[in-house]
Amino acid sequence: MENEHAKKKQVLRNFMWATMFLLVLLFAAMGILFYMLIPNLQISPISPGTEKLLLVIVSILGFAALFTWIFWYRVALKKYKRGYKEELEMFEKSKRGQAFKVLLFFLILLAAGIGWYFGDRIFG
Fold first, then answer.
1. What is the sign of the dihedral through the CA atoms of 20, 25, 28 and 34?
2. Is 57 in contact with 118 (CB distance < 8 Å)?
3. Cβ neighbours of residue 43 under 8 Å, at least 6 residues apart?
4. Euclidean distance between CA atoms 12 and 80, whole angstroms
5. Which helix (H) or strand (E) holds 75?
6. d(CA 45, CA 35)
7. Closest Cα to residue 118, out of 7, 6, 41, 10?
8. What is the pLDDT of residues 70-107, one digit of tens each?
């Protein structure tokens, strides 16, 4: 009983980490793209070489997010939904589940900010 409970907690933890990692990758890439596409956000104009470098970074982040989705997040989601459906519903309704949603929202903002920072300060 104790071992099964620890296993359920570990599966949930893996699922949450996969979700956060995927979102950070995606929104960092989105932050860089928004910086490149919206000229009003740019402090200094982007040179052609820097634009190519930013596109390479966005491509790498996109591929990392894709591989995370295929090999980590999707697998964790299937395992969790198949074996722990009741626990997932209870988690979504609990205070920890609500706190997790708020944490994901702040991670989304942080990732977009990081992407904008890289686009502006380092390459701009």
1. negative
2. yes
3. 120, 124
4. 7
5. helix 74-83
6. 11
7. 41
8. 777 677 777 767 766 777 677 778 887 778 777 777 77
